[in-house]
Write a structure and sequence with these properties.
By secondary structure, the protein is of the alpha/beta class. It has one domain: Alpha/Beta hydrolase fold, catalytic domain (Rossmann fold, 3-Layer(aba) Sandwich). 37% of the residues lie in helices and 24% in strands. Strands 1-2-4-3-5-6-7-8 form an eight-stranded mixed sheet, with helices on both faces. The relative contact order is 0.13. The model has no long low-confidence stretch (mean pLDDT 96).
Length: 244
């Protein structure tokens, strides 16, 4: 039967904030299906994050573009995005609560197998998801794309999340030596961690809107189609192995 991708809004509460995520899944699939969080760049729950949720649905998962800012907020420019990101980072316990609430919300969805959870995470979201894994939040598979690496939460006990880090060697937010140090810390704590470094590639390489954002806001971003496609193909293979 042909896929019928269904899109739903999913609200969940964190203290006084209403968090607004977007769920995408194949209504014709024989479920329940593994859930995959889509953890956003510092722009928030943008159209690109929603596209990636749909991509996960087309690949046979329930994609869930989560909200880290409240009200499904999307920044209008880089200054607003930075402000919202820094506000979210100002209280790690609150950020961790929001992340866990997103996991709890999607696990309750009728289409989801609550025993199988993955995540794909981008830039700021990559840093968030890596920090969560390092703090003991379990994922059956985690993939980060051009994650910001500085300032991650420390490893706290055993890390049991199989992880793949895709990063550009010219990314100013992910020094290659620091990426390897982070990976080694997680391996020492028990995690399976893969790292793929792309020579000559900078930040934002999966996002087709990166070049426009670079021009508009003077950011060190650049899309690379070959790197995008390669990292995505490897991600699907990794998820097929870890999530089924």
């Amino acid at each position: 039967m042909a896929a019928e991708i269904k899109i739903e809004e999913l609200e969940y509460r964190s203290d006084e904030l209403i968090m607004k995520g977007m769920v995408a899944f194949d209504a014709n699939a024989a479920g329940p299906l593994p859930a995959v969080l889509v953890v956003p760049e510092f722009w928030g729950r943008s159209a690109y994050m929603e596209k990636r949720a749909r991509d996960m649905a087309e690949a046979g998962y329930v994609g869930f573009a989560i909200d880290l800012y409240g009200d499904g907020k999307v920044a209008g420019d880089a200054d607003e995005a930075t402000e919202q990101m820094n506000l979210a980072l100002s209280d790690f316990d609150v950020l961790k609560t929001r992340y866990r609430l997103a996991i709890d919300a999607i696990k309750r969805h009728d289409a989801v197998d609550a025993e199988r959870l993955g995540a794909i995470a981008y830039c700021f979201g990559g840093a968030v998801s890596l920090s969560m894994a390092r703090q003991g939040v379990h994922h059956d598979a985690l993939v980060t794309f051009h994650a910001a690496i500085d300032g991650l939460a420390p490893v706290a006990g055993r890390v049991d999340t199989p992880t793949w880090i895709f990063t550009g060697e010219e990314d100013p937010l992910a020094d290659p030596a620091e990426v390897e140090r982070v990976a080694e810390e997680m391996r020492a704590a028990g995690a399976e961690v893969h790292v793929t470094r792309y020579p000559g590639i900078t930040h934002g390489f999966t996002n087709p809107g990166a070049d426009d954002n670079a021009r508009r806001f003077g950011l060190p971003l650049s899309y690379n189609e070959a790197t995008d496609q390669d990292s995505w193909a490897k991600t699907l293979d990794f998820f097929a192995d870890k999530l089924g």
